[in-house]
Design brief:
The protein folds into 2 domains: about 120 residues, Rossmann fold (3-Layer(aba) Sandwich); about 120 residues, Dihydrodipicolinate Reductase, domain 2 (2-Layer Sandwich). The longest helix has 17 residues. By secondary structure, it is α/β, with parallel strands linked by helices. Helix 4 packs parallel to helix 5. The protein is globular, with a radius of gyration of 20 Å. The strands form 2 sheets. Strands 8-9-10-7-11-12-13 form a 7-stranded mixed sheet. It has a 6-stranded parallel sheet with strand order 3-2-1-4-5-6, sandwiched between helices. It binds nicotinamide-adenine-dinucleotide (NAD). The site of nicotinamide-adenine-dinucleotide (NAD) has 24 residues, from loops.
Length: about 250
């Protein structure tokens, strides 16, 4: 039996609570011992919905339930390191929502903490598990050109990080896993539009293999688009993350 908890049950964290609850209902070897949120009314509401206990802080959770073995961390990104550090030091493995951290230095510290305490930290790069991405991975041969768009309508969420860490991070993760060649050059442009941070960005990444990937991400669009298209010898492949489908054309 694995004792789990969810830290941060806002818009996204409540999905973690819902899924742990479902797994429990399906008889999996899992027990959700509690949910934590700085907004206690929110923690209470989610705990009530999924039949578990509510806590206002990680400290309270760990004091009451020292048996917690794994936790989802779905607090805002600027709080990831602080929250995960507290859990890792108490021997708890963590599933941290993307982006892993707000900076490279913070990500390095997290890796160091895992090594020091012999714990697991996994990042919630959910697009890796999108059926369209999973179906595409075995088709990849020698990709030479990517065109990637991830556009969303503005919401006042995740504004503690720029659009590269908020949205483009998914596509960077997927393309790097498909290309498997060192990055040679990165050129980028980004602009703040509605928040104080970059809200729209374009990145041109060139790889040692000669492959070029062109990424566009926006959180101030009037439409929702999540598409990745690429060319490789004799093939053009188009992935729609939203529709979860893949089109393969012989060229
Ligand atoms: N994998 C994905 O596709 C995906 C999608 C959306 C969001 N996310 C990530 O999930 C995380 C949360 O995003 P969100 O949209 O749910 O944010 P949100 O603001 O809706 O929720 C965050 C919650 O954390 C609580 N909180 C803040 N500081 C806390 C602390 N120190 N301790 C306990 N609770 C605290 C807030 O009260 C709030 O309820 C972000 O890192 C975001 O990037 C991932």
């Amino acid at each position: 039996m694995i004792n789990v908890a969810v830290i941060g049950v806002g818009a996204f964290g409540r999905n973690h609570a819902r899924v742990y609850h479902q797994l429990q209902q399906q008889g999996e070897e899992i027990r959700m011992v509690g949910v934590v949120d700085a907004d206690v009314a929110r923690a209470d509401a989610v705990a009530k919905e999924y039949g578990t206990r509510a806590f206002g802080s990680v400290e309270q959770l760990l004091t009451t339930h020292s048996e917690v073995q794994a936790a989802s961390v779905a607090v805002p990104t600027r709080e990831h390191l602080k929250t995960a550090r507290r859990l890792l030091r108490s021997g708890v493995d963590v599933l941290i929502e993307k982006p892993l951290a707000a900076s490279l230095a913070e990500a390095d510290e997290l890796i160091g903490l895992c090594q020091e305490h012999g714990r697991i930290a996994q990042v919630g790069h959910l697009e890796r598990f999108n059926p369209a991405v999973r179906a595409t991975a075995p088709l990849v041969t020698l990709p030479m050109f990517f065109e990637v768009h991830r556009l969303s309508i503005f919401t006042p969420r995740s504004l503690d990080v720029d659009v590269v860490l908020d949205l483009m991070i998914h596509d960077l993760d997927v393309v790097l896993s498909f290309v498997r060649s060192p990055v040679k050059e990165i050129r980028a442009v980004g602009l703040p539009i509605l928040s104080g941070k970059v809200d729209i960005a374009n990145v041109r990444m060139e790889f040692d293999s000669g492959c070029v990937a062109n990424f566009t991400a926006s959180r101030v669009s009037t439409e929702r688009v999540r598409k990745l298209r690429f060319f490789q010898p004799q093939q053009y492949i188009s992935v729609d993350y939203g529709r979860q489908d893949v089109l393969v054309f012989a060229v």
